[in-house]
From TrEMBL:
It comes from Araneus ventricosus (Orbweaver spider). Its main location: nucleus. It is a single-pass membrane protein. The lineage of its organism: Eukaryota, Metazoa, Ecdysozoa, Arthropoda, Chelicerata. This is Transmembrane protein 53. GO terms for cellular component: nuclear outer membrane. Keywords: Membrane, Nucleus, Transmembrane, Transmembrane helix. Belongs to the TMEM53 family. The chain crosses the membrane at residues 156-179. It is found in: Nucleus outer membrane.
Length: 202
């Protein structure tokens, strides 16, 4: 497991477990999320007798037009290895994913589960919270501003540069797709719509 794979696990706070294998809730936060916000959701599940795992992906790993394929695949493998190491494959598992950042992580974890562990996990449900969403320029700028620290001028400059970069990558990807038939960018919306459902989704 990678050293930079940072996650948080919390266990039920009830005195006696209601079931022998308590549900495991995996929370994938939005890109740029601060853990104290995600921890509030975790606390709700804890009080209901659930174990929770919280993870927040770096904004550097995902973007509206492209992702770091190597990092996201390694991340998905780390999540699955964690579940196996903790023996959570024997527990009912639910996902609660936030915004496109969390949904992106879920997408690759789900794909890897279906590909390499089709019968190893008891996936019981997934909550999509404010996602997936088709990314437009205005939404991209707002998201970048929310994830960026510093003065307002600095944040807008970073958002502008990021938007130009995304547009260039989009044009490049479209041309590459047209001439080679290969797509090197991801469309989260399409991927999740076309994904075979392995569990109830909300």
């Amino acid at each position: 497991m990678d050293d930079d794979f940072e996650y948080y696990i919390t266990f039920p706070v009830i005195a006696e477990p209601v079931v022998s294998k308590e549900p495991v809730i995996i929370l994938f936060g939005w890109a740029g999320c601060v853990d104290r916000y995600l921890a509030k959701y975790s606390e709700i599940y804890q009080k209901k007798g659930c174990t929770t795992i919280r993870y927040i992906t770096s904004p550097n790993v995902v973007s509206p037009r492209c992702i770091d394929e190597k990092k996201i695949h390694n991340l998905a493998g780390n999540v699955i290895n964690l579940l196996l190491d903790m023996k959570f494959d024997k527990h009912p598992i639910f996902f609660h994913v936030f915004s496109n950042g969390g949904a992106t992580v879920y997408r690759y974890v789900s794909e890897l589960m279906k590909k390499k562990h089709p019968n190893d996990f008891q996936i019981k449900g997934c909550i999509f919270d404010s996602c997936p969403a088709k990314v437009r320029a205005s939404g991209f700028v707002r998201a970048t501003l929310a994830m960026t620290d510093g003065s307002l001028v600095k944040r807008y400059m970073i958002a502008f540069v990021a938007l130009v970069r995304a547009m260039i990558l989009g044009v490049y990807s479209a041309l590459l797709s047209f001439f080679t038939g290969k797509i090197n960018y991801y469309l989260l919306w399409n991927a999740l719509v076309e994904e075979p459902n392995i569990c109830p989704q909300l």
